[in-house]
Design goal:
Keywords: Ion transport, Signal, Transport
CATH topology of the largest domain: OB fold (Dihydrolipoamide Acetyltransferase, E2P)
GO molecular function: transition metal ion binding; transmembrane transporter activity
Number of helices: 7
Family: Belongs to the membrane fusion protein (MFP) (TC 8.A.1) family.
Shape: rod-shaped
Largest sheet: 7 strands, antiparallel
Protein name: Efflux transporter periplasmic adaptor subunit
Pfam families: Beta-barrel_RND_2, BSH_CusB, CzcB_C
Radius of gyration: 46 Å
CATH superfamily of the largest domain: RNA polymerase II/Efflux pump adaptor protein, barrel-sandwich hybrid domain
Number of strands: 32
Structural class: alpha+beta
Length: 486
Amino acid sequence: MTSRITSAFLTLVAISAAGAGGYYAGSNGFRVEGLALSAPATSVAAPAASGPVIYYRDPDGKPFYAATLRKTADGRDFLPVLASEDVSFDGQGSTSGNPSAPDPNPAVTSENKKVLYYRNPMGLPDTSPVPKKDSMGMDYLPVYDGEDNDDGKLKISLGKMQRTGVRSEQAASRVLTVPVRAPGTIQLDERRISVVATRSDAFIEKVADITTGDKVKKGQDLVRLYSPDIATAGAQYVTELSDPVRRSVLGGARQRLENLGAHADLIKEIERTRKVPLAVPWTASQDGVVLERNAIDGMKAAPGDVLFRIADVSTVWALADIADRDLPRIATGQNVTVRVRGFDDRTFAGKVSQIYPQVNKETRTTRVRVELANRDGILRPDMYVEAEIATGSEQPVTSVPASAVLDSGMRQIVLIDKGEGRFEPRVVTVGRRNTDYVEIREGITPGDDVVVAANFLIDAESNLKAALRGLAPDTPKPDQPGEKPL
């Protein structure tokens, strides 16, 4: 009973101390207010450190470092720090908790590279010849020999490349079309509109059962009318058909019928029956849709009065308004994709057939005409449309993804992937652009690997290292006597 009470008491003391933050991990268990609670030994011995000594640190963990062996104020030696124990953001050392883990980029490990200096971890223009910490307690980052070169190339560890998502793609020859988008409207083809009218005075006896919007066929009867002039010319033509002598003396009656607008079927009927009908049919001159009906039963029509207006809507125009800045890229024959508002699931293909010579002085736009097939009659006059004109040459050009170009405003740069974490900035001359690719006129050739993802991070790293090179202390060379080592 006493042992159970003692055990419960110790447990209660341990829980209370933990809640108040009064416990800490010891080497053999948990120590609570002078009481040691043994814990099972489950820790695994850390792998032994390896590599050469790169610097020395204070034995008490204070932020004091030295490039050579030194002692504390009370005479104790500074502790050596081996290469595998150094902390680095480039994937070297023990940042992952395993000091002996292999470096993802052995080409830049501290075992075969010399530390030139240490730079500020926040990118500030501050370097140190020996390890140190910044004001927030962060370790300065080592810069190894070979990383700080002046050949214009930048080296990035493979570990950092994987973390930042660096990705490359080959430059290639592509047909680069640059779309120009412009609003517009649907209009009727002016060449496919006709009117039905008489060429002489006429009286409308009967109008066919046709209204505005109806479809008609060529030769279909629209009205029956009486025309004194047509009746007179028809009677003269019948006389000439019956008397060859009078035909040779008078003649021309058939021509007068044609001049008055009598259609061929009416003339053939007169020739067959040798009679002139009192009311003659007036027919449609083409297939199409009736846009306008002015004929009324019993009305008198003067010469030239429009009885019907008919339009063939199988082909229509899309008139797009092109802004001044885009007009130089437009040419006849270019492919056009037209989208109609309200029919988002359909597109209509056509070509630029006409660039109008006038510029609207109010909107600073120029009209471009596109012919579109309209077999199902969906496209109606005055509909709003959006036209996308594929400008550009059909010849392939060297191009890269748009994300590969770093534009500073004064110049454009792409990063060439040289492999093994090496990158070279290259100044290029760009040309046409579309939503996905950019034409490169000078600077690279098809087949060059260019960075298309995380390139701005590499560019920032390059700018930082370039700035640090100007602030770093001079590194002594073996063949340059008189210079002091770090």
